[in-house]
Amino acid sequence: MASSTAAPWKQLLVNALQANAPLKHSSFFQLATIGFNGRPSNRTVVFRGFQEGSDKIQINTDYRSRKIEDIKHCPFGEICWYFTDSWEQFRINGTIDIIDGSNPDPVKLQQRERAWFASSLKSRLQYLGPSPGLPCISEEPCNEYPLDPSTGPVGAFCLLVLDPEEVDYLNLKSNERLIYTSKRNGDGGQCWMLEKINP
Amino acid sequence: MASSTAAPWKQLLVNALQANAPLKHSSFFQLATIGFNGRPSNRTVVFRGFQEGSDKIQINTDYRSRKIEDIKHCPFGEICWYFTDSWEQFRINGTIDIIDGSNPDPVKLQQRERAWFASSLKSRLQYLGPSPGLPCISEEPCNEYPLDPSTGPVGAFCLLVLDPEEVDYLNLKSNERLIYTSKRNGDGGQCWMLEKINP
Description:
The structure is a homodimer.
Chain A: E1 2-3, H1 10-19, E2 28-34, E3 40-46, E4 57-62, H2 66-73, E5 76-83, E6 88-99, H3 106-118, H4 121-125, E7 157-171, E8 176-184, E9 190-197
Antiparallel strand pairs in A: 1-9, 2-3, 2-5, 4-7, 5-6, 6-7, 7-8, 8-9
C-alpha cells in the first residue's frame, strides 16, 4: 500500500505515452459510458493531458453530443487505452465531471478555457459545425466558419475530466497485470493499493 | 431502408479490415459492457471472425474472467473498433451470447469447438493457466502446460457471439457518419435502416 500525491500508475502511463509517441494514434483511447437506454456506449476520444498537478484525465467534447446526456445520467466511465507498439493496456475507471460554459466554479471555467486554447484552430472549428448525431441535412462541408484565434471557448465546447478510481494495467510483453485501487483517507487524502493479479 | 440477408455495414467493415490488414492490431477492438457494480467496463479483445453465414461477431474469452459475470448480469455490449490507418471507426452495439461447454445447443457447441481449433496453440494454452483476475501467487510463468493439438476445447474456453443491432460508422478522412439500425420484420427477418448524420 502506497500513499502519495502522484498516483503510482501515472508514471507507467507517462512512460507508455513516451514509448509510443511516434504513433499519432497513441493519444487516442476508447471511453465507455452507460447510455440513457441502460446499454454500454463506447467511442474513441483524444487524450488532452492530465489536469494540472493531478492524475485526472482531460477530454474535449461537444456539449451537444449524446455522451453528455449519458454522463449526466450516469457519471461513471472506463477508459481502455491500448498501446499498439508496447503492447500495454490501461483500463482506467472513474467518475467524469462535465465542465461546460455554465459551470458556476471559476476555477473549472479557467480549466475549460485553457483546454480550448490548447487545442488547434481546426479542432476548435468543429464546435461551430452542426449538432453531432443529428440527421445530416446539407451536402456541403459544414466547417467553413470563420474563427478568430483569440476567441474564447464557444458554447458547444465542453471539457470532461475523469477522476481515476481504479487502474488495471496489463503488459502483454512481460505478461504482467497490476490493479491499482484508490482509497480515500479520513483526512480527505487519497492513497492507492496495488495488487498483482493473473493476466 | 434496405432489407437483405447480409447486413449493409458488413462490407464497409470487411473493406476496413482489408485496408488495415498489414497492422497486426487492426484485428483488436474494445468491448464495453456493464459491470456488476453498475459501472461501465472496457477491454481490448481480438476479432475472431464473423459467425458462419451471418454478421454476428465472435470473440474468444476465458470463462473465469470477470466479463462473463458482467454479461450474464447485463447481456448488452458495444464494440468500438478504430482503424488507425484508414481513420475509420465502427461502434457496434448488440446483445452478447455466452457459449461455454455446458451449452445445451449442439450447434453452438460445434461453433465453440470450431473457434477453439481456429485459434493458435499458444492462444489455447492461456486457458490452462491460472484464473485471470485472481491474485498472482506464483513468481513462475504459469503457461508451461502440455496441450495436445488434437485436444478439444477445455472447460475455461468460452465463445462470445455479439449480435449487432446498431452500427455507428465514422470516417474521419471523408468526415462522414452513418447509422445503421436493425429492425425485426413480422416474419422474423431482419432489415437495416440507414441514416446519414452529422459527425
